[in-house]
Amino acid sequence: MRYFFLVILSIFISQNIDAQIYEVGIFAGGSNFIGDVGATNYISPNQPALGAIFKWNRSPRHSFRASIIFSELEGLDSKSSDPRRVERDYSFSNDILEISVGMEFTFWDFDLHQVGIQGTPYLYTGITTANHDNFYFDENGIITSENTSSWAYGIPMVLGYKTNISNHLVLAAEIGTRYTFTDEIDGSVPDAEFRERFSFGNTNSNDWYVFTGFTLTYTFGRRPCYCNF
Could you tell me which residue ranges the DUF6089 domain spans (predicted)? Predict the structure, then answer.
């Protein structure tokens, strides 16, 4: 991960920042969790998600992108299609603050300096880190806080479609799954090793969560020169 950030930083520094075009705006939508507690529907928003997004368009086909998104991840066994989970009847909610950086690729050229309405599907991936509280379920199934928090790293896999709706506004709709490298978000694996006896579920499968929503960005900056990158 250290080398990933070094590569991104070196690219940013080596280019003339005055010759680019940027986008800044908001993300609004919903979130859902996929793990050892609650339903396992892949796309089923049940809590609001809000955030900010920034893009640096390096060519008509790719952009560097960064975002900060806040949401509450919720899992309810009562909403699951698995009768064993319904009978167990666990539930949790966990506030997360996600920071994501990476690269967005468009299927077709998307040059904001061309006249007229344009649209294209796109893919985004990179790396995420999400801050969340730690807790576990005790022997009676009661949520117990560990009074600590952790950063869950992950890989975003986002598919979307965007179009310009004016000279300076771009509207997009996207669905983005996040595969994380942790199994602690839903409390199925305590953060403290001495509480390992309270672990449950599939400890070989990490947590996922999904953001589904819209972005609205404002573009600015002078006409770019794409010839050198």
Answer: 4-228
Q: Which amino acid is at 77?
A: D
Question: pLDDT digit string (tens) for 10-64?
Answer: 444 444 443 358 999 999 999 999 999 999 999 999 999 999 999 999 889 999 9
Tokens of 106: 């468009």
Domains along the sequence of the chain with CATH: 24-40+47-220 (2.40.160.20)
- What parts of the chain have a pLDDT lower than 70? 1-20, 222-229
d(CA 112, CA 22): 10
Rounded Cα gap, residues 108 and 80, in angstroms = 39
Burial of 69 (0-12, 13-18, 19+ CB in 10 A): buried
In this structure, are residues 159 and 170 in contact, taking their beta carbons and an 8 Å threshold?
no
